[in-house]
């Protein structure tokens, strides 16, 4: 395969930092050639709280990926999320001045640039502009106007903005790691590429990413982002409740949660088979899985109730024909969590999975960023090249990720 371009992605999470490197050829194929995963030590609730710690985590993940791929990278696509992210709608209009009136790719670029002209507060910055539909001479519902005939091209867009200082801190961390930021992409947009089908998106679906420190909620309907919000609660809060309730060091509470936890007391065993050694006690004691579940269940219900509250703002029972898709490592490993979500939300809920790595979501955002980035790079002019890239991407991704999960 003739080497044409290398694309790299960086997922900065509350529990881990993941870097992934892919190589794209001019015929549209992409190979995943390296990845690195390290614990995240400088971010809480989606916000960077320690620049130097974050730089160390990024540098280690990037080093692992570069060593595996035997490739040095100089820029990355970075996933971004946070309670400071907002989405506003706008419209752009341009004239098609040529005598043949055929809409060219640069006309699409012009109209999208026109849509970026919007008054935003000085403490905010545009992260990305997402076209919802194009309109040619009053005919709407067009996804790709290139090649059509018209005199006026319009576009309706969703403009994703973020707090300037938050964006600058992310960029600063990446730059101090020796890299440049090639682009900032909303994490849920990247995850959508991997976890949601086109039918689900067209029907209306909520992607809910329950992570370690936050829960990210994004409602997609067609080309629209109907809702985006971040709740500052995640799986770490369950661990914290266990640590306080049983007087355990945090690391032991996390280990017990991973091995024994159940989200619903009704599903838990009454047998006292979990040995714990509480702080301040001379000898260990045994508790049951039900004792543990009685601590966990209220927090799980609280997180789901906050998700329910957010979804109610968009009349979700009518809008979300495809239901809710849960992802992330915060709660989904807890037996009974899915059943609680289905009962409390009252609509279909499924756990996200892929053919590449099942229900583990370590690489979801990093993979999505690579795919999102490869689709938007211009190695060819037509969509069939991109379609081939998509097929090749997923087939090749399976091979390298099997090594991570099986080896």
Automatic annotation (TrEMBL):
GO biological process: FtsZ-dependent cytokinesis
Residues in SHS2 domain copies: 7-195
The keyword DNA-binding is annotated on this UniProt entry: no
Gene Ontology cellular component list: cell division site; cytoplasmic side of plasma membrane
InterPro entries noted in UniProt: ATPase_NBD, Cell_div_FtsA, FtsA/MreB, SHS2_FtsA
Gene3D superfamilies to which the protein is assigned, alphabetical: 3.30.1490.110, 3.30.420.40
Membrane topology: Peripheral membrane protein
Highest rank taxon of the organism: Bacteria
Keyword Cell division: yes
Quaternary structure, from the entry: Self-interacts. Interacts with FtsZ.
Family: Belongs to the FtsA/MreB family.
General function of this protein: Cell division protein that is involved in the assembly of the Z ring. May serve as a membrane anchor for the Z ring.
Listed PANTHER family: CELL DIVISION PROTEIN FTSA, CELL DIVISION PROTEIN FTSA-RELATED
Protein name (record): Cell division protein FtsA
């Amino acid at each position: 395969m003739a080497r044409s371009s290398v694309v790299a992605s960086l997922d900065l999470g509350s529990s881990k930092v993941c870097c992934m490197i892919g190589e794209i050829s001019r015929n549209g194929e992409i190979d995943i050639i390296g990845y690195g995963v390290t614990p995240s030590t400088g971010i809480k609730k989606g916000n960077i709280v320690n620049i130097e710690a974050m730089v160390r985590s990024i540098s280690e993940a990037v080093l692992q990926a570069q060593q595996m791929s035997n490739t040095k990278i100089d820029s990355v696509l970075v996933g971004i999320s946070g309670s400071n992210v907002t989405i506003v709608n706008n419209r752009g209009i341009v004239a098609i001045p040529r005598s043949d009136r055929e809409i060219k790719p640069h006309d699409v670029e012009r109209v999208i640039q026109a849509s970026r002209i919007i008054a935003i507060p000085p403490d905010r910055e545009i992260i990305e502009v997402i076209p919802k539909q194009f309109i040619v001479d009053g005919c709407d519902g067009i996804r790709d106007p290139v090649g059509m005939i018209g005199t006026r091209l319009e576009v309706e867009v969703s403009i994703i903005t973020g707090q300037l200082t938050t964006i600058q801190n992310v960029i600063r961390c990446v730059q101090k790691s020796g890299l440049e930021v090639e682009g900032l992409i909303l994490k849920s947009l990247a995850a959508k590429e991997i976890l949601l089908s086109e039918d689900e998106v067209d029907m209306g679906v909520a992607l809910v990413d329950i992570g370690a420190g936050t829960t990210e909620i994004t409602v997609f309907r067609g080309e629209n982002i109907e809702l985006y919000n971040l709740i500052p609660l995640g799986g770490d809060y369950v661990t914290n409740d266990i640590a306080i309730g049983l007087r355990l060091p945090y690391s032991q509470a996390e280990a017990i949660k991973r091995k024994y936890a159940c989200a619903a007391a009704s599903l838990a065993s009454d047998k006292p088979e979990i040995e714990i050694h509480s702080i301040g006690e001379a000898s260990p004691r045994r508790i049951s899985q039900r004792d543990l579940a009685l601590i966990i269940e209220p927090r799980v219900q609280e997180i789901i109730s906050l998700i329910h509250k957010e979804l109610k703002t968009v009349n979700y029972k009518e809008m979300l024909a495809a239901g809710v898709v849960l992802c992330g490592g915060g709660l989904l490993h807890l037996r009974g969590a899915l059943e609680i979500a289905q009962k409390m939300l009252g609509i279909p809920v499924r756990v996200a999975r892929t053919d590449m790595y099942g229900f583990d979501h370590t690489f979801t955002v990093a993979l999505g960023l690579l795919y999102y980035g490869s689709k938007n790079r211009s190695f060819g002019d037509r969509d069939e090249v991109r379609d081939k890239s998509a097929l090749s991407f997923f087939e090749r991704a399976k091979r390298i990720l099997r090594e991570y999960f099986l080896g």
